[in-house]
Structure prediction request, 331 residues.
Amino acid sequence: MSAPANATATSAQALDPLAGAAFGASPDIEGRARFAVPATPRPSISGSAAAVVSPRGELSLRVAKRAGRSVAVQQFHQGALRVLRPHYLDESGQVCYVMVNPGGAYLGADLYVVDVEVEAGASLLLTTQSATKIYRTPAFHAEQRMTIRLGEGAELELAPDQLIAYREASYRQDTRITVSPTSSFVMAEVITPGWSPDGASFKYRELRLRNEIRVEGDDGAALLALDNLLIRPPQSDVTGLGFMEGYSHLGSLVVVDPRVDQALADELRQLTAGYDAYTGLSLTRTLAGTTGLVLRSLSNSTEELNRLLGACTGLVRGRWYGRAPLNLRKY
Prediction:
């Protein structure tokens, strides 16, 4: 199989190139750093906009288990990010929060900073109110920085709506995840091109999504996987072999859990064969008793990718947590 995008990483090889992930230690990445507001101004923006110093939106959420249910014990938002009131989809005690961007879209030089912590034994489902739209960014890219920390036995399901990159959009997403050896992390994402006047799919300038996953141990947080996805349509033909293989939409699933193994990978691979998509899957090494799984899927339909990822997460939800397949009923 060949990779659907220019996926770059350090110090190891993926078992399946379509998954676009690399596994192993990386000496040039420092331990468990949290994102901070830039101390110096970012590059000046042409025109009337001034240099950007602080984020356009900040969100911090810490969830803990209290009396059998997961609740927010710390919550902060500022600017163009916030969460709606919590709700519970079933009797498991898992709390669901919905992130909202009242501005409706990301624009050039926008910076959003999100910090999420799930304490020991707690369970959080975090989603978005609607698709993340990236509009034209003529002078400087839009960016989201997200830090996630999971305590012992904690669970986090990250299920945002699709990311839509419109004409001349540039977007960078940097997610740093630190798990405990007994915690469980599931993240599903879909990338789709936005509308353009000539109907072409790849009119955006750049999409760069980076996931750094570490496992907390006695000697600090060791690198489990570094997953880089880079798509730059203006610089090369991304439609052909080695990139998008003739498809326009991309779905990703990341699972980190001590129950991840080859049998699960084989079962998910067989499950995805029933969908109109081209899918590859890789396993990471096992570190401190936990293992990661990265799945990439290419299609020409957001709905098909959502169904495929929903089937995969539904299998995990039912088998590991005793929960029904996810149905957020947003539309």
Observations:
- The mean pLDDT is 85.
- Residues 143 and 172 are 5 Å apart (CA to CA).
- The chain has one domain: 58-321.
- The longest helix spans residues 302-321.
